[in-house]
Specification:
Blueprint lengths: L6 H18 L3 H7 L6 H7 L18 H14 L1 H11 L4 H6 L2 H13 L4 E4 L15 E5 L2 E12 L6 E7 L9 E6 L6 E5 L10 E12 L3 E2 L5 H6 L2 H29 L1 E2 L2 E2 L4 H29 L5 H26 L10 H8 L9 H11 L3
Parallel strand pairs: 1-4
Antiparallel strand pairs: 2-3, 3-7, 4-5, 5-8, 6-7, 9-10
Helix pairs in contact: 1-4, 4-5, 4-9, 9-10, 9-11, 9-12, 10-11, 11-12, 11-13
Amino acid sequence: MDFELSEEHKIFQRTAAQFAQKEIAPLGEEYDEKEEYPRWIFPRSGELGFLGIPYPEQYGGTGPDTIALSLFAEETTKADAGIAMGLVVQNTVGTSPIYNFGSEELKQRYLVPAIRGEAIGAFALTEPNVGSDVSAVEMSAREEGESYILNGAKTFVSSGMMADYAIVAARTEKGKGHEGITIFLVEPQSSGFTRKGLKKLGIRAQDIAEFTFEDCHVPKENVLGEVGKGFYHLMSTVQKTRIVVGASSVGLARAAFETALRYAKERRQFGQPIGKFQGIQFKLADMATEIELASLAVYKAAWRNDKGEQCIKEASMAKLYASEMVNRVAYQALQIHGGYGYMREYPLERYYRDARIMEIFEGTSEIQRLIISRQLGL
């Protein structure tokens, strides 16, 4: 197996890195502090073709390519995780259900503007009582005439406050478990729909919201896919998304590592740079090795996904290892900085906070281990 990037991918990576370092990196500290998202980054990204990476040209995309999407996630997250997550959501769960299961009319109305960065999508699955067990969705959708009436609540909705539309999972049938879940496309101006922002530890630039639905009317033409088959539709999209989260973890780890490496060469104690001490050298050697191994796992999974192969196990392995790796790397990078790493004027404090979410969203580490175990036949 040859995991060398093609020349096209290398060019794309350089372009994505230039965009990320020029447009995103200078904003990271400011927008983390303000806990706001620079909304203008969406049309700018769309203008450069960075919001249609997974989609064909007929909708304004650049062609389905998991490797390119992973490279974009890695480079933007290296620049700033909070801002990058908004773009990652837009490229994945904020649009993929429309492309995969929406009518042509819905694609033209929502997907095409989203790829241009003119509309922002949110994905609402988690509920106050529903997290890792997706099959336990409680939110109801009652059929009434030409509409469905939605009642319930969603929480931890990424891009929820600034979203122009939301992809929402609700239960349309009384059947329990996997059966009876349906996916809807809901506009925030719909009657009975309200939202409020939430505060969080890390990736603070990206907004996150809680949605409430009280007799919210959604037209039947806004159903995505088959009624009652929403669980299976959702599961078909997570393989790619987990790979992308792994790539984001690699990008954040690279940012922390490179910052620590520079500091180790510049910071002097006992008459020499601290990087000359074996204790620091070993930390950096371990960090570099872990980042390389995680990168190989991520891009192997992306390569297999692009070949159309089932890689449930590999995607979960990549997400699991990379997300836990970035937390170890951020921890050691902060340790190398000593007291300065704990101060907010240094980026390590932000990296350390941002890293924690990688083990939680798109399936916790515990869920990834469960998936891997099942794939092993256990």
